Amino acid sequence: MGLLFFLLASGFPLLSQTGENILLVVNRNDAASREIGEYYRPRRSIPVRNVCYIATTSEEEIEWKTYEWEIERPIGQCLTKAGLIEKVLYIVTTMGVPLKVDGPGREFQSTRASVDSELTLLYSKLKGQKIGREGMLPNPFFSKRDAPFQRPQFPIYLVTRLAAYTVADVKAMIDRSLAAKNRGKFVVDLRSEDDEQGNNWLRTASLLVPQDRLVLDESKRVIYGQRDVIAYASWGSNDQARKQRKLGFTWLPGAIATEFVSTNARTFKQPPDSWTYTIFGDRLHYFGGSPQGLSGDLLREGATGASGNVYEPYLTGCPRPEYLLPAYYQGRNLAESFYLSLNYLSWQSVILGDPLCSLGKP
Asked: Looking at the chain, which runs of residues are DSSP E strands?
């Protein structure tokens, strides 16, 4: 408990962010996006001038031209015309706003990215910085455990998305975020196969949360059926021992989840109940172009927030649980907790949930 005590004792000041610090992005061409925006705005007291209506396709995957002209450009105009460039800290996209941008390039030089991760750079672009498409960029907020998220230290926006399989799922996420409390279990499940780096991140995370609220599994089995879960970190479908799609957890309001899975935010189209994980090469049983698990399942089961990736981020591009879990436990809001744990921007991540969701101080 010594390291945990040190982190708590040397903590950061919690700033009282509100709906005035949010820019809510709604696709006026999509009924689900409009409905979610109308539901969320009054519940976080977001001013009308902080709602940005764009007109674009509802397709999940787009090209760069569509991103630049129909998403980034009008959002930049909303921020500029309303005088919100500095005031806004969080951008919230809604289901029905395109999810990912396709493009050429391979591996770490790929131009493929999530829409949300690209939007994090909009603050710097509005300040005149020129940023290329290729590859990822270092996240200046990564690992800054003791720093409040504020200007001018961090010249980025934190972007989260209100999306799930259905509008009803999203509304339930919003309701749970408003009821969040600092209680419940931190469930950490290591992969059954030997993977020193990822498993060590999970082990470190387990040391930085209250030990009397920790469920840690280092065995070759997978944890199912946990009750009163407030945070979960694992390998998801990348654990070969994971055979069940549903975890069977009972999630508390405010619960978050992260898994080391490459394409778990590739789509928010709902798979059939009969679909389950398969192996690469078994294309007949892929869903959304991949055999891997989906973040939407975590939200459907009752998580309030989760991370995901639209394409291949590689392990180093996934949220780091040893930063995420203790930050959230200590009272950071959902957006800051997740972005504090991300190495890269202009990459593959999608952070799902209400950015202001917080457990409060322990």
From this structure: 22-27, 51-54, 61-62, 90-94, 100-101, 113-114, 137-138, 158-162, 185-189, 214-217, 229-234, 251-259, 305-309, 344-345, 349-352
What amino acid is encoded at 2 in this protein? G
Contacts of 6 (CB under 8 A, 6+ apart): none
3-state DSSP helix/strand/coil percent for the chain, to nearest 5? 30, 20, 50
For 267-316, the pLDDT digits (tens) are 999 999 999 998 888 888 899 999 999 999 999 999 999 999 999 999 99
Residues 194 and 225: their CA atoms lie apart, in Å, by 24
Residue where the block lists tokens 């991760």: 117
Cα dist from 108 to 142, 269, 316, 331, 340, whole Å: 18, 27, 11, 33, 21
Distance linking the first and last C-alpha atoms of the chain: 15
Amino acid at 96: G
Q: What are 52-65's pLDDT values in tens digits?
A: 999 999 999 999 99
Beta-strand relationship, 344-345 and 137-138: antiparallel
Cβ-based neighbours of 61, under 8 Å, separated by 6 or more: 98, 99, 100, 101, 102
Sketch the domain layout of the chain as residue ranges: 10-161, 174-352
pTM equals 0.95
Indicate the DSSP class of residue 334: H
